[in-house]
Write a structure and sequence with these properties.
mainly alpha; 3 helices; elongated; two-stranded antiparallel sheet
């Protein structure tokens, strides 16, 4: 991994960021990308499995969690149903 540049010092010489600063930046960037992806899924009506897992852990800790494939299959059934398209 290449070191990342931090702000310049007072003489205009670039200062290299420490590994912990770079790791913090990477972690924050990953969280923002996940948040953006989740928002896009919500806008386009695509179910968000990670959000489902967080909800299940918080609200239903004793209930079994659906595998990813079953979660998406149930989401499609809920959206379109067995009788064709539905509005809501």
């Amino acid at each position: 991994m290449t070191p990342q540049r931090a702000n310049s010092d007072t003489k205009g010489t670039p200062v290299m960021a420490s590994n912990s600063e770079a790791a913090t930046f990477d972690g924050a960037l990953r969280m923002r990308v996940r948040s953006l992806c989740s928002a896009c899924r919500s806008v386009f009506g695509i179910p968000d499995y990670e959000r489902y897992l967080a909800h299940a852990a918080e609200r239903h800790p004793d209930a079994p969690v659906l595998p990813r494939r079953e979660f998406f299959a149930q989401s499609i059934d809920r959206k379109y149903g067995k009788g064709g398209m539905r509005c809501c």
